[in-house]
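Translate sequence into structure tokens.
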Amino acid sequence: MDYKKVANHIILWLNKYALGAKSDGFIVGISGGVDSAVASTLCAMTGLKTIVLSMPIRQTKAEHSRAINHIADLKAKFPNVIDMEIDLTNSFEQLEKDLPAKTNEHFLSMANTRSRLRMLTLYAVGQSNGCLVAGTGNKVEDFGVGFYTKYGDGGVDLSPIADLMKTEVWDLAREIKVIEEIINAAPTDGLWEDERSDEDQIGASYPELEWAMTYKKDETDLTQRQKEVLSIYQTFNRANKHKMEPIPICIIPTEYR
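Result follows.
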């Protein structure tokens, strides 16, 4: 893949979309991970206003530090970048108090609530500044295993890197000179207070998942690990299909109208 051409293609696409939407630019949530780093860098490279927003919620020190360092790097390179930080911990803790105890005790529900609170914040700040919310999902997460929060980080206006596999995002990150500490960090969704990685949660690495996403042959000659990975991929894909397909609509029969 020619990553220089890929970067230029995405930048032109972003510019064209913003022009058509009569938008002033973009807003991107910065997590400290490579996906948000690449998406925000590409947005900044358009020359349009680019708001980079850090939204910590009891964030680990390492994640927050990477996010701040990436923002500082972007600010040094691009005069069109505007940095903001909104600590959502108090807002999240108030929501915890207001929600039923059963919901508070459901760890996955509360992890996804963090993502949805960040989405709400991105849209509030983005709309008030005339900016589109740029998504940070990659192809294997968005269309393979569905590893994102519905109406959380999945709630965006446009997705600049969603046709790139995770390994391709890493390579593109090197092309556009994202800082090394972000490229080298273990991928994490930033929704937990410990340092669990995406691989810890999924049970397979991104290269393994990408292999499974494209594998269409007979499974007879696969190794035990390959069979495990294929099963992991298929399980996530089936369970998260509702995220990747249009919302079901109950169509009223013509004779009832």
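Note: The chain has a mean pLDDT of 94.
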